[in-house]
Amino acid sequence: MNTVKTFFLLMVLTALFLVIGFGFGGEGGLIIAVFFALIMNFGSYWFSDRIALKMAHAHPVTEEHDPDLYRIVSEQAQAAGLPMPKVYEIDSDSPNAFATGRSPNHATVAVTTGIRRILDREELGAVLAHEMAHVGNRDTLIMAVVATIAGAISMLAFMAQMSAIFGGMGGGRDRGGSIIGLLVIAIVMPLAAGLVRAAISRTREYQADATGARTSGNGYALASALEKMEMGVQNSPMKVAEGASHLFIVNPLSGRSMAGLFSTHPPIAERVRRLREMTPSY
């Protein structure tokens, strides 16, 4: 069900982008929008992992440098039936983790130094199982595409806003209709794109929780880890760009996932409830 919902929402987001292109230039604008989307998605496919790691100030970790972390990642990769990903570390007291990469064969998982201080081995393993679930479910690619399209919509919306401001000096009925259309693109479309992007992100987080709990066999450990990380991030928020916050297992900016429609993370309490309900079935 989560996969179907994600596919539907991704189609909605793509449709919004194409509608904006048509609104700017009719059929010609639609063609340009399609071409623009292809180029941006090509870029996100090949470079999203490097961009994400750079934005998070992550650095690679070798097996010789941290054999314990490598062993835990390797265990969870094997449990999920996935190749061993690259391992990165982020120097931050804020406890968090994320996965990135265009495919399971080109995946990377990153953890903060803070997460190692507050989680025990089982909890850290469950968190890494969640991240490997993102890799196996292709969420790392899906969310890169979603973020790219949403960013393009925001950029076009800004252009529409500028066009409405500087093109609104003239009179005429046609001019008035054009200005209204630009204002719709400038205000309504980015809001709609934000809603869809957040809904997709929440859906993928729930799915990764469920998949990670199954592969690790320890939903209670993941639930416990989420509660500890929420408290840890509240005490020590992470300095990261808002555009990259959806990557992390817990909202790095505050530790709290807003219950509103624009939240990229489901509420921790709801995630914990679902995990503890499904765990006895193992």
List the helices and strands and how they pair.
Elements: H1 2-55, E1 58-60, H2 67-80, E2 86-90, E3 97-100, E4 108-112, H3 113-118, H4 121-136, H5 139-166, H6 173-216, H7 219-235, H8 268-278
Parallel strand pairs: 2-4
Antiparallel strand pairs: 1-2, 3-4
| C-alpha Rg (nearest Å) | 21 Å
**Low-confidence parts, pLDDT < 50 over ≥5 residues?**
169-173
Q: Tell me the overall shape.
A: elongated
* N-end to C-end Cα span: 21 Å
Question: Largest sheet, described in full?
Answer: 4 strands, mixed
- Structural classification: alpha+beta
Task: Classify the beta-strand content into a percent band.
Answer: 5-15%
Integer count of domains: 1
Helicity range: 55-70%
The number of helical elements comes to 8
Instruction: Average the pLDDT over all residues and give the rounded result.
Output: 84
Trace the largest sheet across and list its strands: 1-2-4-3
What is the string of SSEs from the N terminus onward? HEHEEEHHHHHH
Number of beta-strand segments: 4
